[in-house]
Amino acid sequence: MAFSTPAAAGQAIRFTRQTDVRVQTASPLVQVRNLEKTYRTSRGALTLFKGLELTVDSGELIAIVGQSGTGKSTLLHILGALDAPTAGTVHCASTNVAALNAREAAAFRNREIGYVWQFHYLLPEFSAVENVAMPLLARGIDRRQALDAASNWLREVDLEDRSEHRPGELSGGEQQRVALARALVGNPRLLLADEPTGDLDETTARRVFELLERLHLTHGLTSILVTHNLDLAARCTRTLRLESGRLHAAA
Fold first, then answer.
1. How many C-alpha atoms does 61 have within 13 Å on its Cβ side?
2. Around Cβ 51, how many Cβ atoms within 10 Å?
3. Residue 13 pLDDT > 70
4. Which fold does the domain 26-249 belong to in CATH?
5. For residue 190, which of 144, 223, 238 has the smallest C-alpha distance?
6. What is the dihedral of CA 20, 76, 108, 149, to 10 degrees?
7. Which end of the chain is less packed: N or C, by CB atoms within 10 Å?
8. 202 CB-near residues (< 8 Å, 6+ apart)
9. Alpha-carbon gap, residue 224 to 79, rounded angstroms
10. 117 and 196 in contact (C-beta within 8 Å)?
11. 20 has pLDDT over 60
């Protein structure tokens, strides 16, 4: 596959950054301190995190592994302002995420966070290019400009010829590549990926990860990946294991 920077989008859309690779700063992009998350259930309190600490520097590609039910997805939700901590501080992309109200959290997610999930969550009634454009349309960008940017991102994930196809007309790997383009079309500072290859066969999973890895590097992203695939995790900058409510360096 060939990947090229969507230069046309850079000329047409003001919000596109001036360079493809961000200048990495010395300060961490993510800082989590003494995080606690407790759910109230009919059987009593369920505590997922207790004293969890996490620092992620700009430009890192972090893998988080661990057994099912340990709270890996919940941690991504908290980092991306989809859930709130019970206690502790969460600073992400220079923002105190825990202090955001619902409207501020939505704006923060649209501006700073790109999400890729195990299931693609593409809207079935819209084409691939329309799905990719959705975050920009939600931001209030002109429809023509949003579609132009989306087309360039589909070209970058080698799906330009599938732009008018609806999700049901795409393979599983193609659907996930569309989802990745949608996650990155708004130029987020942080990419959160929750088992992005979990529903794919081994060969397709490897190709999707290689695409994610390449986009991470060429666009100067900071990325946090939850996965059960230890081979893919080993290719990341660091691998952390979530266990007993805390993160530990994986052996």
1. 19
2. 12
3. no
4. Rossmann fold (3.40.50)
5. 223
6. 40
7. C
8. none
9. 10
10. yes
11. no
